[in-house]
Amino acid sequence: MDAFSKNLSALIEDRRLTQQEFADSIGVSLTTVNGWLRRGVQPKAFSIDAIASKYGLSSDDLLSATSGFYAKAHGLTEAPAGALAPREPRRAYAPLYGRVHAGGAGAPDLLEDRIPIPYEVFEHHQHGYFLEVEGSCMNRVYPEGCFIFIDPDQPPRNGSIAVVSIDGGDYVMRRLLRGANAFILAPESFDGQWEDIVFREGDGHQVEMVGTVVWYQPQREME
C-alpha cells in the first residue's frame, strides 16, 4: 500500500466514514475511492485539493510516508499539539445470509455465518448483513467471491448499487438508474456480455428493493 492509500485509509477510519460516505463528501464515485485504496491508483491534483479542503488537511498529510496522516495517527512521527491520538481498532460482526447473483437473476443461496466488519461501518448500519457475490456482471466494482454489506433500511438512490428481488424470489445486484416511467438495473462488467434489465410501468413484474450496498470486503482479506 502506497503512502496516499495508507493516509486516506487512516483518514476514513478516523472520521468513521464508509467508503461511500467519503466518496459522496468529495463528489467522486465509490469506484474511484476503491481504486485509490486498493489498486494504487494515484489521485489527480484537484482530488488532493478537494480532500484537503474538505477535511482541513495539507497535501503533506495525504502524500507523505513519514509525516502524513497515517504516521501521525499511529504515533510514528512527532505530531504537533492537538494532533489526533491513535485509537484501538474496534471490530463488529454481521451475519452472512447467502449469495447474490451478479449476473442473471436467481434465487439466493442461504448461508449461515458471521463476518467481521469494522465497527465504524456497523454502527451506522446496524441492521445490515453480508451477501457473497456470485457472477461477473458487477466485477468492475465488486469481484466475484467478495462479501457485500447490505443496509435494508437505506432505500437505493438513483445511481446507487442495489440488491433487488424480482417477482418475489429472484435476487440480482446491479446499479439502479431511474427514469420517468421506468428504471434500469445496469451491469458494470469487464466481460461485456451483460445487458441492462429494464422494468417499465405495467409490465407485470413485481420488483422489491431489498437494500443498498454500503460496503464490501474482499474475500482474500477474510482468510
From TrEMBL:
Source species of the chain: Denitrobacterium detoxificans
CDD domains, sorted: HTH_XRE, S24_LexA-like
Highest taxon of source: Bacteria
KW Transcription (keyword) present: yes
Pfam name, any one: Peptidase_S24
Xref: InterPro entries: Cro/C1-type_HTH, Lambda_DNA-bd_dom_sf, LexA-like, LexA/Signal_pep-like_sf, Peptidase_S24_S26A/B/C
MF terms in GO: DNA binding
All residue ranges annotated as the HTH cro/C1-type domain in the record: 8-62
Keywords: DNA-binding, Transcription, Transcription regulation
The protein's name: Repressor LexA
